[in-house]
Structure formats: structure tokens, C-alpha cells
Amino acid sequence: MSQLTFRYARKGDAAAIVDLIERAYRGLEAAGKWTSEADLLRGPRTNQDEIVSLIDREDSRFIMAEESGKLQGCCLVQGVGGEPSRTINAAYFGMFAIEPDAHGVGLGKIVIAEAERRVADLWGANQVVMTVINLRHELIAWYERRGYRQTGATLPFPFSETSGEAHRDFYLVEMRKDLS
Ligand SMILES: CC(C)(COP(=O)(O)OP(=O)(O)OC[C@H]1O[C@@H](n2cnc3c(N)ncnc32)[C@H](O)[C@@H]1OP(=O)(O)O)[C@@H](O)C(=O)NCCC(=O)NCCS
User: Fold this and answer.
1) Which DSSP helix (H) or strand (E) runs through 110?
2) What is the pTM of this model?
3) Could you give all domains of the chain from N- to C-terminal order, each with its CATH number?
4) Is 46 in the pocket of ligand 1 (CB under 6 A)?
5) In contact, 143 and 109? CB cutoff 8 Å
6) Does any ligand 1 atom lie closer than 6 A to the CB of residue 73?
7) How far is it, in rounded angstroms, from Cα 64 to Cα 6?
8) Average pLDDT in the 146-171 region?
């Protein structure tokens, strides 16, 4: 594998980001594997308008990981600021997707580590916060091995913003990691 290079997405990258997110999260290529949510959700995960509007936001960046100019991974980071206490300056992490052909070879670990470095540089963040579907036990364990912990907070899954759910008995759990 040649070297991954990182850059922030521009509006012209939105189509490639949508394609990667859809294939990685819910596509048939990865369905049934620990890396996929296709057994739970089959409708679109996002769309081009949403990605363009996120790229436009001052408090958000899409990090793109490329190998020889080809998109291999992406994630969204957002500065969310000082909650729940003034000593915490958290950044949100989401829309994390790795090219399905390359799942399980270590790219995800490299991309999340880069995102953690960048949120510290961009916003002085000292914590990363994310939400994960509670039924994705292998993925939660993967984040725990990266230093994330479940906080005990839960959120309803936004079923009104999605479609194609296989059932409705799941929700989101919050995970956080302190950056040192
Ligand atoms: C989740 C995702 C980002 C992980 O990235 P990745 O590049 O596939 O993961 P990596 O190759 O870096 O990590 C490999 C890990 O998988 C683990 N793994 C491999 N096979 C596994 C299996 N069958 N079950 C559980 N874990 C497995 C390995 O043990 C290794 O973990 P370790 O190094 O802690 O031991 C990626 O698979 C993805 O894009 N998934 C779809 C989108 C998604 O679910 N995003 C997250 C939403 S919160």
C-alpha cells in the first residue's frame, strides 16, 4: 500500500464522498460483515446536498484520505465546543467511511488517528464525541480499542431522517475519548 495523503474536501468532492459513504455503510459489498449497517438500514445514508452543506459550514470539515489520488476514506469533524463543562472542548466525529475493498487492513485506524490530531489543531479540541448504533457491538469494541468509552448517554435513532430500516429497536450510544 502506498502512502495515504490527507486533505479537506471541497464542494467538488461531494459526489465521491456520497458514493463512498453509501457503499461503506449500507452497500451490498460489505453487507453482513461487522463493518456494515446494511442489515439494519438499507435507505440512503446521506445525499449530495447534505454533504455540500456540511463542507460549507465554518465549524465543519470533511477529511479525505487518498491513495494515489483515489478516495480511500473520509470522516466529518465538527467543533462543538465546551460541553458538558468548561474544561471540555469537544469535537464531533462522524460519517466515517473506508473503501469497502480495503476494510480490515488498518486504514480506519490511520484515518481516525489523523482526525484526532486535526481537531486538536483546528479547534484546540481536547475530546472527541460520537454516536454509534447500540447493536453494532464489534464496532463499539473497535472504538473502545482506540480509546473511546461509552458515556452512558443514549439518543433516539433519527428514523424520520432515514428509510429502509429492517426494524426499529435500536438507538444511538454516545462515545467519547479524551485527547492527551
Ligand atoms: C468501521 C470502519 C470505519 C473501520 O475501518 P477499517 O479500515 O475497516 O478498520 P481497520 O482495518 O482500521 O481495523 C481493523 C480492525 O478490525 C478488526 N476486525 C477484523 N475482522 C473482524 C471481525 N470479523 N469482527 C470484529 N472485528 C474485526 C481487527 O481486529 C482490527 O482491530 P484491532 O486492530 O483493534 O485488533 C470501516 O469498516 C467502515 O467504513 N465501515 C462502514 C461505515 C461505518 O460503519 N462507519 C462507522 C459508523 S459509527
Assistant:
1) helix 107-123
2) 0.96
3) 5-130 (3.40.630.30)
4) no
5) no
6) no
7) 6
8) 95
